[in-house]
């Protein structure tokens, strides 16, 4: 896409606001490392530096903006408490630091919010109110409670204090590696990229700021490009699955962000898997979006010194396991082969003999006799197996075909 225009309007957040936020929150959260990844750099063709925000206590950068906001409340506002609508990292960051500071926190979540998210937020001392079937309904109820009870509403992204707090992430990145010339940052509502773009523009050299959104939720992309792509679907990057970006954040993005890239679900899955395998770190889909952009658009970032923020690590363990298994299947290290056999004694043994000769480990065998389009004496067998790599799998398939078997891999979407 074309580079976004960058006028110079008076923006509601300045570099001085971000620096003040950094001083305000210093010592109260983790100053996460910014580390060079030699393997990912070789893989992508860029110089890759990773900012491990998944190492915060609540496993996400959201603590920064939440704490910066809480510290600026009046004593009266602190006594009455704060409220937010969130089922994700914002809820946990606000709850955790509210409890630390003695500020009552109420979080409104949709009724269908997974129990684990409710329990995690409650474990940090927040009062959780379940209301509505959608986030919009929960948000509306939170604003109603704000008016009725005198709470202070803390927006997850569209607030200058939140944006300034999130921008401290980039301050730490440039302190650790001043040579960064490109920031690749996930966009949901836009709070993180807004704060980081303000920091990037304050550097003494040109720094390109590139946003990343999931293809299923290109809300900020639509906003700045005038497109109307749909924002819906089940995305691995649920932390950035935002249908409407903020007004303040959109203003900053339009002024300061150079480009927005869209990434596929497959690349998001690959990025999550690579970060676990290579960096030995657990990252949620939204947190892996920056790396996903380098994987999907390598020519866009070739030769650049890129800072990538791993902005969160809150991923369901079952989902993570599924992502890892799918990645093994796509790489050929895990496969399911559908083989047509003749229904006679020794048929399965003869197939297993070929697997043994090729040194392929059989994990599971599925016989299908009834629910098949084959004749009554026909037999379909699915064999799930482990191989070393795609070439090893190809040799197995070739050996099966050489023995006269009809065989086809069961492919992933």
Automatic annotation (TrEMBL):
One of its GO terms (biological process) is L-threonine catabolic process. InterPro entries: ACT_dom, ACT_ThrD-II-like, Ser/Thr_Dehydratase, Thr_deHydtase_catblc, TrpB-like_PALP, TrpB-like_PALP_sf. This is Threonine ammonia-lyase. It comes from the Bacteria. Residues 336-413 form the ACT domain. It catalyses: L-serine = pyruvate + NH4(+). Its cofactor is pyridoxal 5'-phosphate. Its EC number is 4.3.1.19. Keywords: Lyase, Pyridoxal phosphate. Belongs to the serine/threonine dehydratase family. One of its GO terms (molecular function) is L-serine ammonia-lyase activity.
């Amino acid at each position: 896409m074309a580079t976004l225009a960058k006028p110079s309007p008076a923006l509601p957040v300045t570099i001085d606001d971000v620096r003040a936020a950094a001083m305000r929150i210093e010592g109260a959260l983790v100053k996460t490392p910014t580390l060079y990844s030699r393997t990912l750099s070789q893989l992508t063709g860029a110089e890759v530096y990773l900012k491990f925000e998944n190492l915060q206590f609540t496993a996400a950068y959201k603590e920064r903006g939440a704490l910066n906001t809480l510290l600026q409340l009046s004593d009266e506002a602190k006594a009455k408490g704060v409220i937010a609508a969130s089922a994700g990292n914002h809820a946990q960051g606000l709850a955790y630091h509210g409890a630390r500071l003695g500020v009552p926190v109420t979080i409104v979540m949709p009724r269908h919010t997974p129990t684990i998210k409710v329990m995690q937020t409650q474990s940090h001392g927040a009062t959780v109110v379940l209301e509505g079937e959608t986030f919009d309904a929960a948000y509306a109820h939170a604003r109603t409670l704000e008016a009725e009870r005198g709470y202070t509403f803390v927006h997850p992204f569209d607030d200058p204090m939140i944006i300034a707090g999130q921008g401290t992430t980039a301050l730490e990145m440039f302190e650790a590696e001043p040579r960064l010339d490109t920031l690749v940052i996930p966009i949901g509502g836009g709070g993180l990229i807004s704060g980081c773009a303000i920091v990037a523009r304050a550097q003494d050299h040109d720094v390109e700021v590139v946003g990343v959104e999931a293809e299923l939720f290109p809300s900020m992309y639509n906003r700045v490009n005038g497109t109307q792509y749909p924002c819906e679907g089940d995305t691995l990057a649920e932390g950035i699955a935002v249908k409407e970006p903020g007004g303040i954040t959109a203003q900053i993005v339009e002024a300061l962000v150079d480009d927005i890239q869209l990434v596929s679900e497959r690349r998001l899955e690959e990025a999550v898997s690579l970060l676990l395998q290579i960096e030995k770190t657990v990252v949620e889909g939204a947190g892996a979006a920056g790396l996903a952009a380098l994987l999907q658009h390598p020519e866009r970032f070739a030769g650049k010194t890129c800072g990538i923020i791993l902005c969160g690590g809150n991923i369901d363990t079952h989902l993570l396991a599924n992502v890892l298994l799918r990645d093994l299947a796509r790489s050929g290290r895990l496969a399911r082969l559908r083989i047509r056999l003749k229904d006679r004694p020794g048929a399965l043994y003869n197939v297993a003999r070929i697997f043994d000769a090729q040194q392929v480990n059989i994990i599971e065998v599925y016989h299908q006799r009834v629910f098949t389009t084959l004749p009554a004496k026909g037999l379909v067998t699915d064999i799930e197996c482990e191989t070393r790599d795609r070439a090893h799998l190809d040799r197995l398939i070739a050996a099966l075909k050489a023995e006269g078997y009809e065989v086809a891999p069961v492919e992933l979407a």
